[in-house]
Write a structure and sequence with these properties.
The protein is of the alpha/beta class and 242 residues long. The chain has 8 helices and 5 strands. It has a 5-stranded mixed β-sheet with strand order 1-2-3-5-4, covered by helices on one side. This is Peptidase MA-like domain-containing protein.
Length: 242
């Protein structure tokens, strides 16, 4: 497989199924996801295992690539910039969490999926800003288009998140992907991560989310491993959810 290295540990495969796309822009947008995460959780993002971005004909997925690291497969082609960012930032969040890549929906994997959906939304919002910074806007107003895509993929923030979780917990415990619930949860907790970007550091302590028995147990661990840069925000998040 021929790949292009776009950062210290990030590669993009040369694959005709990606179609013709502006590599300068796409690579810059993918790099920005990594840069933003480094600002939020630290420069360790540049020292994780290697991550290779490849094409897939179906829904985006991340795989354990053995000693090589991880392989992120995206279902995107051409200069569909918002989709590059949206799909990659979701899977890259899984990469940073670095749990098992079995595909099983069990334990607290539903919370990981909600956080990764949150990553996709957060980075789409960053793309709206980057349209001006990177001058990829045009007379067609690509920024307005990204805003439409953001709203189309943004869930509904819940007024009573604790009740919403209680009423959907039996569903979340089933081994079935529940995109709408994940999306609604991510929309609800988004303001806490916008208020304090360091709250993203919690993903460094998730580990294998399939091994956690409950949200309470997970948060006990997250409180224990938190630092002063986000401990107050973590308490706010706990109060919202539990």
């Amino acid at each position: 497989m021929i790949t292009n290295r776009i950062s210290t540990n990030l590669y993009v495969a040369e694959d005709p199924r990606f179609g013709n796309y502006n590599k300068d822009i796409v690579y810059r947008l993918l790099q920005q996801v990594q840069i933003d995460f480094s600002n939020w959780i630290g420069n360790d993002v540049f020292h994780t295992s290697d991550c290779i971005i490849s094409y897939k004909d179906e829904c985006p997925t991340i795989y354990d690539n053995g000693q090589i690291g991880h392989k992120i497969c995206l279902h995107v082609s051409g200069d569909d910039w918002w989709r590059w960012v949206y799909q990659f930032s979701h899977e890259y969040c899984h990469h940073l969490i670095n749990g098992t890549m079995s595909g099983d929906i069990s334990g607290m994997i539903w919370f990981e999926e909600a956080i990764c959906d949150l990553s996709a939304i957060a980075h789409l919002k960053r793309l709206i800003v980057l349209c001006d910074v990177l001058r990829i806007d045009s007379l067609l107003s690509y920024k307005d288009y990204v805003i439409l895509c953001l709203h189309a993929n943004l869930g509904s923030a819940q007024k009573n998140c604790r009740e919403y979780l209680r009423s959907n917990m039996a569903t979340l415990e089933q081994p079935v992907y529940q995109r709408e619930i994940y999306s609604n949860l991510s929309a609800t907790i988004l303001p806490f991560f916008e208020e304090n970007n360091h709250l993203w550091k919690i993903i460094l302590h998730f580990g294998d989310m399939r091994k956690w028995d409950s949200l309470e147990d997970l948060f006990s661990h997250l409180f224990y491993t938190s630092d002063d840069s986000y401990s107050v925000s973590l308490r706010k998040l706990y109060n919202l959810l539990l």
